[in-house]
Amino acid sequence: MMAQQKMYGYIRVSTREQNEERQRIALLEMGVPKERIYMDKLSGKDFERPQYKKLLRKLDDNSVLYVKSIDRLGRNYVDLNEQWRRITKEKGADIVVIDMPILDTRREKNLMGTFISDIVLALLSYVAESERHNIKQRQEEGIRAAKQRGVRFGRPQKPLPENFKEAYQRWNSGELIGKQAAVLCDMPLSTFYKRANQFREIT
Fold first, then answer.
1. pTM (whole model) above 0.85
2. What is the Cα gyration radius of the chain?
């Protein structure tokens, strides 16, 4: 009699997401023991993830890996297909994608079943990478548009010291050199020049 497969689960969330509990609940409902659930809080752009690597070492031909959706495993088209091959072919483990029942390698272990799974996987991983690319493109377009509107990114600048205007005027008239003006304002020379240029634009 064939031994029951060891069940493992994998969760991935980006550092901006806070929905790991939804994935954890889905895995527990499938019967995955909580001590066999591995989680990374990292981007899905590649597979350089410590918990994923640790999980991979545990998998063998008597294991089944559960993930809630294919993009939780990864978003890079080429890498995702390579890792799928590595898990199912090299490790001999099964994979179950909870949100996509057709991606369950325990079913239809014949040529047709494998062929259908491969096609669906290729399509879904392509869609996952395309979405990642589209999100990045939308972010870049949004940042460019915001900059054109004058929105500043990064940490807010410190307010100018009270004596900055006086030091700037003395430097601008040639009474002080840049280094002297920077010392008066208690800031590095490069910072003084940067703030002086900004001050000139608004005055």
1. no
2. 27
Closest Cα to residue 27, out of 74, 70, 68?
68
Q: Please name the helix (run of DSSP H) or strand (run of DSSP E) that holds residue 64, with its range, or none.
A: strand 63-67
Q: Which residues are tagged catalytic?
A: 14
Amino acid occupying residue 117: S
Domain that residue 55 falls in = 6-134
Residue 188: helix, strand or coil by DSSP? coil
State whether 86 and 21 are in the same domain.
yes
104 lies in the same domain as 187: no
**For strand 94-97 and strand 63-67, is the pairing parallel, antiparallel, or unpaired?**
parallel
Distance from chain centroid for Cα 156: 25
pLDDT tens-digit map of 66-101 = 999 888 888 777 788 888 888 988 898 999 999 888
pLDDT one-digit tens code per residue, 1-38: 456 889 999 999 886 656 788 999 999 999 999 999 99
Q: Which amino acid is at 14?
A: S
Cα distance between residue 74 and residue 102, in whole Å: 18
Best CA proximity match to 165, nearest among 139, 184, 141: 184
Q: Is 201 exposed, middle or buried (0-12, 13-18, 19+ CB in 10 A)?
A: exposed
Q: How many CA atoms lie within 13 A of 193 on its CB side?
A: 6
